[in-house]
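Sample 1 of the test manifest.
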Amino acid sequence: MAKVLMKGNEAMALAAIKAGADAFYGYPITPQNELPEYMSKHMKEHGRVFLQSESEVAAINMIYGAAGAGARVITSSSSPGIALKQEGISYMAGAELPAVIVNVMRGGPGLGGIQPSQGDYKQITRGGGNGDYYLYSLAPESLQEAVDLIKESFDIADYFRNPVMIAVDGLIGQMMEPVDFELETPKWDLPKKTWATDGNQKGRDKNIINSLYLDPNDLEKHDLKLKKKYDEMKRDHQRYELINMDKADIAIVAFGSTARVCRTSIQLLEEEGINCGMIRPITIYPFPSKAFDEIPKSVKDLLVVEMNTGQMIDDVKIVNEGKLPIHFYGRSGGIVPEAEEIVEKVKEIMGGE
Amino acid sequence: MLDEKLIVAGFGGQGVMLTGQLLSYCATNKDINTLWFPSYGPETRGGTANCSVTISDETVNSPVISKPDSLMIFNKPSLAKFMPKLKKDGNLVVNASLVKDLDFREDVNVYEIEANDIALKLGNLKAANMVMLGAYLAITKIFTNKEIVAVMKEKFTGEKAQFIDLNKQALEAGKKAVETSA
Amino acid sequence: MAKTKTIYEKSNGLSDAHLSYCPGCTHGIIHKLVAECLVELDVLDRTIGISSVGCSALNYDFFSCDMQQAAHGRAPAVATGIKRVKPDSIVFTYQGDGDLASIGIAEAIHAAHRGENVTIVFVNNAIYGMTGGQMAPTTLIGQKTTTSPDGREEAHSGLPLKISEMMATIPGATYIERVSVHNPKHVIKAKKALKKAFEIQKNKQGFTLIEFISTCPVNWGMKPKDAVDWAVDNMIPYYPLGVFKDKTNEEAN
Ligand SMILES: Cc1ncc(C[n+]2csc(CCOP(=O)(O)OP(=O)(O)O)c2C)c(N)n1
Ligand code: SF4
């Protein structure tokens, strides 16, 4: 199929419909409104469910209920709304329920602003709610990648019986790019949802969806079972891209739309004869530690670039294990860095040696 | 090699966003890489609005345009905001009906198009953005007016279809304005 | 709307900041009334207002009293927190229908239920303004919004919520009235209602809520004048004006 030009929020909505989403529940918030608005127009045509909830708290619990009943479900929001959803997300991880959650990030904390940001990195990658859990979290850099990952993310969520977070920002949500919706995406081997409370008990024992384990021994066992899933994510499902790393003297670490800006910086540096590479985490949880094992000897410095005041830098420090000097460049509050700012930072680091 | 970075800026309601989108749609139809990014939020209601459009044979990387090749400017505040960023020898297309008596940079190519007056002569002020687009296309020759009209036929369905003819005339009038001023 | 605007002069209760509302939006008139009541009751310097999340989120800049900005829907809880530690202050929230009737309904109900001595200024424009025109609980049947593109349907979204009627059923509430600002006569009536609410608070007589029928010309897709007509023709028949609860009256009887 030919490519179609679509706005990011709408393209993500259509990708979810193509992936067979049975229901969307959500609440309005800028800059992701076009996603539910698209759903309100088109889910009905496909005989699926769209409902605007009274709040994000309600939306995530509608997701909990529908996921528990065995449906493929998706919700979307932006930073303050995602913050409100954390309780429900923790319950979903505890009850082992699959769902796709799109976070079109904006500046914070509090009401913050509405312009693009990556300020929720810690909230996304540390679980965000109470207890020992994580979300498989994908950070696409383009609309094509966002569409492909959303299509696959429903399978990933079902496979792990755990929510998947799609972490993008206002740039990706609001921009338009040509997208091919028919590209093949990996299909995961999925068992039947025999655990679902689907109201069809014929031939099986009753099912319960629950995160309550009052006996500490039971809860510990449950926590360890969850941990096994997170260990598997870390072991087998890290995703990243290495860009221009072969002869690089310095490597940028950046994700999402920031990585795109850095691609331009790398080109500009190349024109000046400076070899700069990039590690682009595609999963921000699990953090792609394996990428750091592949860093060539030529790389003398790491530069973390984020649209926040420095959050992923802590993960880079963990996997770097003190090997290379780590620098940081960030813009926050909704300001997207220009490629030239990063070029300057790289030159400053290299000149300082 | 085609690699054009354009910022279109003006008041909300002047058709700034649509003007940029038509170019991106046209690029998509021709399988050329493109990226369109709007300013967004309440400030665009009645305030100033702008969009960045990249059209390129290469993969589009940064969505942020720090040094545009061309500007299409619909009002004074936008001129003040974006003119300093324009590349040397870049194209500055201004709606001269609204942006008058101002100092333009001397190291860029300035095209003053009386877009509102031309659109009014055609019978509808709303077509001023298409006059500007026609001028821009005549200057850059990125796409032909015909290609843009083809996009309109695809996108302007229902009630909007009636404006295609007017827009077509406006594109041509914009082209003529550039040719006669040259 | 230029006609109605000239009737009023700027009140001391408003700052010099430019009101950021769209042309013809009735949020502006309601601000004026709040400011005038606070000045006329001579309580401005002991008033703490709470901005909610909606088009009025920035009104911490517009009123000249102390202001706090609250999370979406939580203004009545913030008001409660303030009032309990500063019982002699005058506390009001200013909330849209998305903020109060949707995400914040629990906080509104429980503030009334506890009989908090605060005043809620509730602005019902039947839509989410700030976020670009999505459906609100107060959106009318058949009304098109960006999330009810074919018009609101009862089978899908229920019937529009009548907040004043509902709040009036809460035993703890003292005074509930619905007003409109579509013409000068109603503006005067609306001001009287609001002043009464603040007086009740001043006398420590409990929870008050004034619901304003308001317009959103931009997201309704109408000219300001047509929006006012639409509110009169469509909203007021469904959301009748009047006093829905007056405990001060009951007590007097
Ligand atoms: C937790 C959270 N969810 C959603 C939003 C986005 N949001 C901002 S204003 C608003 C609703 C505005 O509607 P309303 O309360 O009716 O006020 P109006 O703008 O119409 O005056 C919403 C949903 C937010 N800021 N925070
Ligand atoms: S969007 Fe609607 S409610 Fe908000 S300021 Fe504009 S007209 Fe008023």
